[in-house]
Amino acid sequence: MQYGENVRGLVTYLNQYQLIPSQRTQEMMSDIFGCKISEGTIYNQVQKCYEILEPVEERIKAKVQESEVVHFDETGMRVNGSGYWLHVSSTKTHTHYQVHQKRGQIAMDEIGILPNFKGKAVHDGFKSYNQYECKHYLCNAHHLRELVFVHEQLKQSWAEQMIKFLCKVNNLVKQSKLDSKSALEPSVITKFELEFQTIIDSGYKSNPEPEIDPDLPKPKGRVKRSKPLNLILRLDAQRKQTLGFMYDFAVPFDNNLAERDIRMTKLKQKISGGFRSESGACAFARIRGYISTLKKQGLSILEALTNIFRNDPLFV
């Protein structure tokens, strides 16, 4: 049996956007429209959509690569019982997903966005990102979560001071943007830099380097430090990347955009428990990247998916 573009677009919309499993998609089409569709037919529509969207995905990648600010993240996923990684590259208008067996630089090189990206990369500090020559900025939402742990669980006051400091600076930056300002006054920045240093110094006092007993054999490798000390060292060494949002209003405070874009793919895994095949995971990633891009641009998802089967995809 042959199905028209409207049916094929709707099936793809239900299965890939609304995340309705294949069997329930079959039931819905039968109960509501009296249209009996096999699971194989659903799979075929998804694969056809995936194939047609190949040039659109390349355009999305190019748009992301040309952007001033891009959010990057990665998360684990299960494919045919094995561990894979889903990489996301996000802007306010475009989203690109890529499934890969690797998490680090090998995957990032093959995806192809970061090697030639010259803008501002926002991420969680995963070391592989630092291999690329773009400007790097760190997610302060991650810092706040770590600081809350140090404050609430370990009762260290410097962590509370740093939480209040970061939130205070962020609130001032937000208000300055609302007031149509393009930057903070240099004197204000200097004041904040001194305050940041004071809190860092307090953190060092609360977390001195571990002492090494000279009478014991010298340990191999680096001396193990506490979690609070590692956090302080990171904030100290990467202060420019941490406070990038203060110096440059184009830089966001956190990496929440990428985390939001990844959230729906995590929901998919919770519903299905993973993907049966790598081809299915790759199809989902490409189609979801297109759907996410459509949503960001305020376009109709069902209409766009239907037009794919008319060989007229939107080159967003």
Characterise this structure.
- The protein is α/β, with parallel strands linked by helices and 316 residues long.
- Among the domains are: 67-136; 140-208 and 224-254, no CATH class.
- 57% of the residues lie in helices and 11% in strands.
- The protein contains 14 helices and five strands.
- It has helices at residues 5-17, 22-33, 39-52, 54-66, 105-111, 140-154, 157-178, 186-206, 227-237, 239-242, 244-247, 256-272, 278-296, 301-308; strands spanning 69-79, 82-90, 95-100, 120-123, 135-138.
- Strands 3-2-1-4-5 form a five-stranded mixed sheet, with helices on both faces.
- It is elongated, with a radius of gyration of 24 Å.
Give short descriptive properties of this protein.
single chain, 316 residues, alpha/beta, five-stranded mixed sheet, 14 helices, 11% strand
